[in-house]
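Table 4 source record.
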Amino acid sequence: MLEALRAFLDEVAAPARPRPLEASDYRLAAVALLVHLASIDGEFDAGERALLQKLVEMRFGLDHAAARALIEAAAESEREAVDLYRFTQVLKRRLDEEGRRVVIGMLWEMAYADGEVHEFEENVIWRVAELLGVSTRDRVALRQAAKDADKPVPPGPWGG
C-alpha cells in the first residue's frame, strides 16, 4: 500500500517534459495500443498475432518469452481500459518526439498486417497520433512508409 502511494506521488511529481525512453511502462502502453488496433476490426488473426510478436521482440529487444508476457499483460490492460487516453498519456510522458513517432509507425505496420487498413484502424491511429502530438505530416509519412515496407521490422530506438 505504501509502495503504491509512493509510486503515485512520484508520478504526480514527475517533470512535464518528455524524457528519453527508459521505463518499462511505456512498452506496456505501446503494446496495449497495438493489441487494441489489431482487434478493432473484429478479427485478430494468426498473421496479425505473428506480426505483433515480431514487432514487440524487435522494437523492444525482447526474447520470445518476454515479448509474449508483455503482449499478454498489455492485452489484459487493454481489456480493462476505458479509452486510449490512459495509454497515450503514459507514452507522451515517457517518450520523446522520435519515440512517439516510432509508436505511430508501429501502429501503421500493425494496421497493414492483413494487407489493408480498415477505417476503424485508420481512425484509431489518427486519434492516437493527435493525443501523442504527432503531426499530420508525420502520421501520413509513417503510413506511406508502412504501406511501402516489405515487412522487415527494424529495431526501435530503445532496443534490439
